[in-house]
Specification:
heterodimer, A: mainly alpha, 7 helices, globular, B: alpha+beta, seven-stranded antiparallel sheet, 7 strands
Chain lengths: ~160, ~260
């Protein structure tokens, strides 16, 4: 299979991750497009035979972090700094909105780990490699992300984790 | 539990992800029985993951926007341009007049709509390449006559590249109507019966020479370029893009020795 075909085949999964990472569809697709373009220019760095998808997540991570830095250079990207201000909710109890808001309220570093592990099912090792961090950091960020999300969602309207389909 | 290893937070996370090895899982679940708050917390994590997947899974099933497909494919186009750029460098190095090639670098890399030449070439390919009895008007056994005839009708020296090195033998060619002026189509076939066609037309005096460009019309892939007085389009319905690009490179080199 050619590189182009492999890339085309991975677009749906890149879009899913990007949507959860940045929120709205247009920004997410912009991120995917930038990622694909960057991937082509960096393809010589990709080692054939290794997981192309994991490599693309790395490329996307770099593209996204650079963008966030470029738009708000004064914000540190450390674990405790939320990338987005948490918006007030109307207390409508819509878990779906709360889930999206909760994810958006997580610091980027924690959000990436949570999404790669829980949504994209990458192993802890793979996640560590994608993000270029030690596995211990993966585990601690994962724990913090989950606890924060749980607290955020429990805080809304006093409802506990209920599913809205 | 005192005789067992203490439970770590990382193990609780692993349990929530269903990644804890079997033996340790049993120990952890026994510990959960004695620590209901921790059990509830871990169950909540697991539930959150399920919600996350359920919520975002449909995104992967949405139709892919064309701009992203183009971005995923554009590397092949970039490489095609890089190849032409390589020839430009070679042309300059050996001191040949490389004026036309410089246009290649200035031409836009991507275009939204396949231009007329790509669409017509794809249509002509789709029309004649499935033909069993009459794929061509003049067969390869009369190649000299074919080339002389097409050159005369197109008003310039047309050549049929030799693609035997690529496993493609000339089947023959035909003349196609076009307004203004006629078009030549050469057909090649490999031992397995796969066919490619080279569409050649004369370009008006105001044309711009271009690098390789790629288009897809239905299931027909087309590489096309304009060089000197001719526009070319190489089409195939059963060849992958990279394979077709390789042949397009060979065609190009033969037509520009």
């Amino acid at each position: 299979m050619s590189d182009a075909q492999s890339l085309v085949g991975l677009i749906p999964r890149l879009r899913r991750y990007a949507r959860a990472l940045v929120g709205d569809r247009a920004s997410a697709d912009d991120l995917v497009q930038d990622t694909l373009e960057r991937a082509w220019s960096k393809l010589h760095l990709y080692r054939h035979g290794t997981d192309l998808r994991a490599w693309l997540f790395t490329v996307m991570h770099n593209v996204h972090v650079n963008r966030v830095r470029a738009t708000r250079p004064t914000d540190p990207l450390d674990d405790e700094m939320p990338e987005l201000a948490q918006r007030a909710t109307q207390g409508d109890g819509l878990m779906v909105r709360d889930l999206e808001r909760g994810i958006a309220a997580l610091p980027l570093a924690q959000r990436e780990v949570l999404l790669l592990v829980a949504l994209e099912d990458l192993s802890y090792d793979e996640t560590a490699r994608v993000l270029g961090i030690p596995i211990g950091t993966v585990m601690s960020r994962l724990a913090r992300a989950r606890e924060k999300l749980r607290a955020l969602m429990q805080g809304k309207g006093g409802t506990k984790l209920q599913i809205v389909k | 539990m005192s005789e067992n290893q203490p439970i770590s937070e990382a193990e609780i996370q692993s349990w929530a992800d269903g990644r804890l090895e079997e033996s340790r899982r049993a120990e952890l679940e026994a510990w959960f029985a004695a620590h209901p708050e921790e059990a509830e917390r871990a169950a909540a994590y697991r539930e959150l993951s399920a919600q996350l997947r359920e919520h975002y899974e449909p995104v992967a099933d949405e139709p892919v926007p064309p701009r992203l497909e183009r971005a995923a494919e554009s590397g092949s186009r970039l490489r095609a341009v890089a190849l032409v750029a390589g020839w430009v460098a070679l042309g300059i190095a050996i001191g040949s007049a490389a004026g036309w090639q410089l246009h290649a670098l200035q031409s836009p890399v991507a275009r939204a709509e396949p231009p007329v030449i790509a669409r017509r070439a794809a249509l002509a390919h789709a029309t004649y390449s499935p033909e069993v009895r009459h794929p061509v008007e003049v067969g390869a056994d009369q190649e000299q006559h074919l080339v002389a005839w097409l050159s005369k009708r197109l008003g310039g020296e047309v050549r049929a590249p030799k693609l035997d090195g690529e496993g493609m033998a000339l089947v023959g060619g035909r003349l196609l109507p076009r307004d203004p002026g006629p078009v030549a189509q050469f057909m090649y076939q490999c031992a397995r019966g796969r066919r490619i066609t080279l569409y050649v037309r004369t370009e008006g005096p105001d044309h711009r020479e271009t690098a390789f460009r790629y288009a897809r019309e239905g299931n027909v892939r087309v590489f096309y370029w304009i060089d000197r007085k001719f526009g070319y389009a190489l089409s195939s319905a059963d060849m992958e893009r990279d394979e077709l690009l390789k042949i397009a490179n060979v065609v190009y080199r033969q037509l520009n020795p």
